[in-house]
Amino acid sequence: MSYNEDHRDLKDVLSEVRRRGTDNRLIWCKPSLDFQTTVAHREGLLLGGVRSPLFLRDAGDGLDGIPWVKRLYYPRMVVCERATGTVADWLPLMEAIAKAGESLLLVTEQIAEELLHTLIVNSIKGTLPNAVIYRGNDGSAEALGREWSSPPEQTDRVPRAAEAWVRRTGTVVFPEPSGGWRGHMQDVEVISAGGESYDHQLERLRFLVREIQTPVRRF
Predict the structure, then answer these.
(1) N or C: which end of the chain has fewer CB within 10 A?
(2) Contacts of 19 (CB under 8 A, 6+ apart)
(3) For residue range 170-198, what is the model confidence (pLDDT) as tens digits?
(4) Concatenated DSSP letters for the chain?
(5) Mean pLDDT of the chain
(6) Are 42 and 199 spatial neighbours (Cβ–Cβ below 8 Å)?
(7) Which residues, other chains included, contact 58 with Cβ-Cβ below 8 Å and sequence gap of 6+?
(8) Is this model's pTM higher than 0.85 or not?
């Protein structure tokens, strides 16, 4: 079914959020569980955008699918300037995370091509939910603690969050209830978009994501 509309209500919501001075990277969207569109506020840590479009799908799986956005649950966050070494070097960490039912968020400026390809394949197949993102240029990544020069061998030394939402222009990480990154958290506006049907809702979510994407740049 095709819906010919100008999404005026969504434009009004975005205008109201932007009037509060909110950076586009701190505006996110998700599907509403009912027909109404609402705005909620959360606190999260802002990081850089995703490394490759192959981590992003046109529409996510499940009820919480958001077009062109990757959602990771219980991500272990590994920060390193260069993700080098062989895939075999990273396998123990990847296998431990997958076995625990968690996900991997790799925060790095450079990555070996073979490792990037392996992580993309795991992401697409769902064997290890993951994403590779840039650090960002405002120092937020430093809040995650230790920077690794080689893959960590044990996950218990790697910080974990409740969720990470990843898209082309930025990533926001939401802490677990008992954790957080005091002094680095920012207010995040989350628009829950309603719709007349599931397909209509996806169309409206695509509109929102297009609107809140800023021009391509390195963070």
Answers:
(1) N
(2) none
(3) 999 999 987 678 788 999 999 999 999 99
(4) -------HHHHHHHHHHHHTT--GGGEEEEE-SSS--EEEEEEEEEE--BS-GGG--SS-SSTT--TT-EEEESEEEEE-SEE-S-HHHHHHHHHHHHHTT-EEEEE-SEE-HHHHHHHHHHHHHTSS-EEEE---SSSGGGGG-PBPSS--S-GGGS-B-SEEEEETTEEEEEPPTT---TTT-EEEEEEEE--SSHHHHHHHHHHHHHHHPPPP---
(5) 91
(6) no
(7) 67, 68
(8) yes
In the block, tokens 């939910």 appear at 129
- Tens digits of per-residue pLDDT, 98-123? 999 999 999 999 999 999 999 999 99
State the pLDDT at residue 218: 45
Contact present, 75 and 103 (Cβ < 8 Å) = yes
Q: Which pLDDT value is given to residue 59?
A: 67
Residue 159: closest CA among 86, 92, 97, 87: 97
Place of tokens 């919480």: 64
